[in-house]
């Protein structure tokens, strides 16, 4: 009986080692290799580069401040926002007084910064995404910011609005989702216009 148990244990151990090598090493290496060949940019995290160095991922939003940059939507990911290790929403319901007050504060701040009436501020300028890391804003929010950015950089507003139009992505497959603008890509293109960092 003991000899049979040892044989079964040895067979189980050999199977464990074989499956560990196959599924724990060879299969992941094969998937990585195919991804590198077929989707190199995406497989490496969709990194965006500026002047030869990676400055972020086009898949993860990041904070931009100052009058001379397009701003992303608010983020609830971490205390400072845009923390990929703290991805998530605020989980506050639509009638929560804290959320209502925060939306009101954001509406007033964006309206003042963009010099528009509060009723012209789009929803994505007021609320964070479910992940808190959304890299996109609506074309309406990007167009709203264009005059401020142009003024701060001394650029023609028409040129900046054209840049927004050039970086507006359509719906997925022509009918899914909404049009969107990737803030990082737009700001990198903006930096290329006047050479600012």
UniProtKB/TrEMBL annotation:
Q: What Pfam families would the database entry show?
A: KdpC (PF02669)
Region Disordered: start-end pairs: 70-93, 111-137
Cited InterPro entries:
KdpC
> What is the membrane topology listed in the Swiss-Prot or TrEMBL record?
Single-pass membrane protein
Primary residence:
membrane
TM segment ranges: none
Q: Which domain of life is it from?
A: Bacteria
> Does Hydrolase count among this protein's keywords?
no
Q: Where in the cell does this protein reside?
A: Cell membrane
The subunit structure is: The system is composed of three essential subunits: KdpA, KdpB and KdpC.
List the protein's name.
Potassium-transporting ATPase KdpC subunit
Q: Which organism is it from?
A: Streptomyces millisiae
The organism that produces this protein has a lineage beginning with: Bacteria, Bacillati, Actinomycetota, Actinomycetes, Kitasatosporales
* Name of encoding gene: kdpC
């Amino acid at each position: 009986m003991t000899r049979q148990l040892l044989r079964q244990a040895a067979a189980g151990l050999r199977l464990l080692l074989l499956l560990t090598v196959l599924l724990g090493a060879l299969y992941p290496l094969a998937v990585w290799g195919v991804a590198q060949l077929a989707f190199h940019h995406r497989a490496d995290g969709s990194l965006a580069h500026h002047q030869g160095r990676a400055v972020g991922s086009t898949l993860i939003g990041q904070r931009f401040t100052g009058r001379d940059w397009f701003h992303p939507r608010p983020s609830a990911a971490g205390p400072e926002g845009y923390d990929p290790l703290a991805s998530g929403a605020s989980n506050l319901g639509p009638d929560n007084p804290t959320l209502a007050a925060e939306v009101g504060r954001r509406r007033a701040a964006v309206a003042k910064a963009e010099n528009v009436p509060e009723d012209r501020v789009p929803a994505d300028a007021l609320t964070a995404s479910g992940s808190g890391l959304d890299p996109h804003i609506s074309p309406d929010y990007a167009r709203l910011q264009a005059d401020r950015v142009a003024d701060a950089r001394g650029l023609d507003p028409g040129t900046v609005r054209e840049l927004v139009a050039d970086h507006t992505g359509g719906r997925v497959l022509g009918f899914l989702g909404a049009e969107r603008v990737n803030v990082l890509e737009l700001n990198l293109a903006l930096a290329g216009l006047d050479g600012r960092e």
